[in-house]
Amino acid sequence: GYRVSLQGNFFGHNHKYITFPVYNPRKHIKLDPPLNLQSNATASKCQIWWSVWNVPWYLVEILQYELQYKEYSMSWEIALNKTPSSSLPQIEIEATELRSGIAYIARVRCKVSENENSYHSQWSEWSQTTVFQRADVPKLSEKILNTTMQLLFIPLSLGTLLYLFWNCKLSSSCFLTLGQKVSPALTFPHQLLSFSHSIVCTMGISR
Questions:
Q1: Least confident of 29-38, 59-68, 92-101, 159-168
Q2: How many CB atoms neighbour CB 64 within 10 A?
Q3: How many CB atoms lie within 10 A of CB 128?
Q4: What is the dihedral of CA 161, 164, 167, 169, to 10 degrees?
Q5: Per-residue pLDDT tens digits for 168-200
Q6: Which end of the chain is more exposed for a tag (fewer CB within 10 A), N or C?
Q7: What string of H, E and C letters represents the secondary structure of 118-160?
Q8: CA-to-CA distance for 43 and 54, rounded, in angstroms?
Q9: C-alpha to C-alpha distance for 89 and 86, rounded to whole angstroms
Q10: What is the DSSP string of the chain?
Q11: pLDDT tens-digit profile of 90-131?
Q12: Hey, which CATH number is domain 27-134, 2.60.40.10, 3.40.50.1820, 3.40.228.10, 2.40.30.170?
């Protein structure tokens, strides 16, 4: 630790003021803001990542981050905050948290984790911003649609042909039956029955 004092000449007299009797630098850290903030938005989520600069290696793994994002046209006062669950410099925003067709802007800051006892820091300044927008749900391409229609066309065509063939077969049977009913031969029922009876008798005699 250190003792920090302020000494100066005031109105012709030297004065010394003890500002911090015991000052421990590791308990008063303020980091530089993250940089290289980038984003990639899809139809299901938005991934945001960044990097840190001028941070000692023994602090990198105990950092915590806070992401702030909002609609581009809104004020930062009503922005939403998200905290990553780990010390990795990245975070994801689910698509359900974003409105379709709306541009968003985000920024991030960092400090030493509050769960750390050996070091303590205040929040850094906010980083530069990144702008992103949720991607629309991809539509079915024309190629896939055409392929689907072709696959459906074959069984539908076969089914239609079988249906027409079956109907034509039934229609032909009905036509033959109706034709037999209006046949001129049936206008003489007695002669036809006598002729049929003679054929049956003849066949019986021949046997």
A1: 159-168
A2: 19
A3: 12
A4: -70
A5: 665 555 444 545 544 444 444 444 445 444 444
A6: C
A7: CCCEECCCCCCCEEEECCCCCCCCHHHHHHHHHHHHHHHHHHH
A8: 35
A9: 8
A10: -EEEEEEEEETTEEEEEEEEEEE-GGGSEEPPPPEEEEEEE-SSEEEEEEE--S--HHHHTTEEEEEEEEETTS-GGG-EEE--SSSSSEEEEEGGGS-TT-EEEEEEEEEE-TT-SS--EEPPPP---EEEEPPPPPPPPHHHHHHHHHHHHHHHHHHHHHHHHHHHHHHHHHHHHHHHHT-GGGG-HHHHHHHHHHHHHHHHHH-
A11: 999 999 999 999 999 999 999 999 999 999 999 999 999 999
A12: 2.60.40.10
Estimate to the nearest angstrom the gap between the alpha carbon of 38 and the chain centroid.
19
Evaluate whether 38 touches 67 at the Cβ level (below 8 Å).
no
